[in-house]
Task: structure prediction
Amino acid sequence: MFKDSCSSRDAQKQIKDLLRLINRELGAAPQADPTVTGYRVFAMVDLAGRVLGCVVAQLLAQAYRSPCGALAMQDEMVDEPCSIGVNRMWVRKVKK
Result:
């Protein structure tokens, strides 16, 4: 797991490199720099230090529920209280 604090340049570079890989594999748009925007990056690593999976989360006060199986109309969306939002969730292909 990466250090909770992103104070070292090496840790920041590892996180940025990992997020570039995740965004490419998920087909996701690049996001703001997680080392300065309040995101937390949690990585699961094996004993050799290879990243097997990762979750990018952010503390939130409110969020919109994602409808299951259908697109919601803008006027149907109601914010709800929450405590954390998951921005990215990824697992290495060979571990799925």
